[in-house]
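re: the backbone from monday

yeah here it is again, tokenized this time
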């Protein structure tokens, strides 16, 4: 997927007055196409150009970034989160009920691996890859970064609407599955892969 550039962004003075409009549109989009809950405590949010556009605009607003070079440095970091050919990327968020008991609440999550989180498409399953697996990442605890390296068989089944699709998490303590993905959600993930294919072909050409 082609990276975001400075030209894709709105200047701060144009974005700030319309922030509520963009926020409401972003929330509706994410809820319909990009967010899925796995039981009561886990949420996956898949990233693409649209979700990252809002993230970067918010960084610019909060940090009051006006220099194009500073904005470019932020983009170089956030663009790493975009899907690429046969690769979907998502934030895995852990809900904490009592922040006063943060250590105790995070204890069951400190040993999670990518194998605990899987995409189920019909009879096939695909384990995730946990990117934030360093000790310092686990110390942060409530947010992780995961990738799904989509194989040809998984992709073929994902295209087929008769193949029921969901996400599951099982680390022996927390065992839950998401609702079955809607057609809109599945198509949004397929669009990520298709756009990444096309952009990869353009760069190769």
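seq for it, each position gets an aa:
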């Amino acid at each position: 997927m082609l990276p975001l550039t400075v030209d894709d962004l709105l200047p701060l003075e144009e974005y700030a007055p319309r922030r509520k409009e963009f926020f409401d549109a972003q929330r509706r989009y994410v809820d319909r196409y990009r967010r899925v809950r796995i039981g009561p405590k886990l949420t996956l949010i898949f990233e693409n150009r649209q979700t990252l556009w809002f993230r970067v605009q918010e960084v610019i607003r909060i940090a009051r970034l006006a220099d194009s070079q500073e904005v470019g440095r932020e983009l170089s970091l956030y663009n790493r989160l975009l899907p690429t050919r046969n690769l979907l990327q998502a934030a895995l968020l852990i809900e904490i009920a009592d922040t006063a008991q943060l250590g105790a609440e995070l204890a069951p999550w400190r040993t999670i691996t990518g194998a605990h989180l899987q995409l189920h498409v019909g009879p096939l399953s695909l384990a995730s890859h946990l990117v934030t697996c360093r000790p310092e990442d686990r110390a942060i605890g409530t947010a992780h970064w995961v990738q799904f390296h989509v194989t040809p068989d998984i992709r073929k089944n994902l295209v087929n609407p008769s193949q029921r699709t969901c996400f599951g998490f099982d680390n022996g303590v927390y065992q839950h599955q998401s609702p079955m993905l809607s057609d809109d959600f599945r198509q949004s993930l397929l669009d990520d892969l298709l756009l990444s294919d096309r952009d990869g072909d353009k760069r190769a050409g």
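Residues 74 and 128 are 26 Å apart (CA to CA). The chain has one domain: 6-204.
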